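SEQUENCE AND FOLD
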Amino acid sequence: MSIPRKITVETDGASRGNPGLAGAGIIIKDEHGRRLETIQKFLGVTTNNQAEYKALIEGLRAAKRHAPDEVTVQMDSELVVKQMTGKYRVRHPEMLPLYLEAMELVSEFGKVDFVHVLREKNPGADQVANMAIDSRMVRGRGAISDG
């Protein structure tokens, strides 16, 4: 009999402007709090809520690589947590495909819990998301010109 494997997926989506340049930050930790993986991804121009969902989706995809029995998702987006737990309905048509993709990924795990944490309690994922935006801006390909 194998020991159940639990991981925590910390995610954050950041957008500079709404919509604006956006990035996703994901940190995956084992049951002892050790960092297994850190992912930063530039998302282009998107809204903050879309960035939050995209970070969640990237985090769930990455979590599959670790073959966990249980996943705890921690994020500072109260909206996304409440939508994923069924407390809020998804009303915005641009959010629905992201929600459905996230729900499909959730269905591939044995157990997934969503935990809303205050932004101050999610500094690692926030920092990684902002690094994704900064890295693109430093290379000059993410800048928005006024025309």
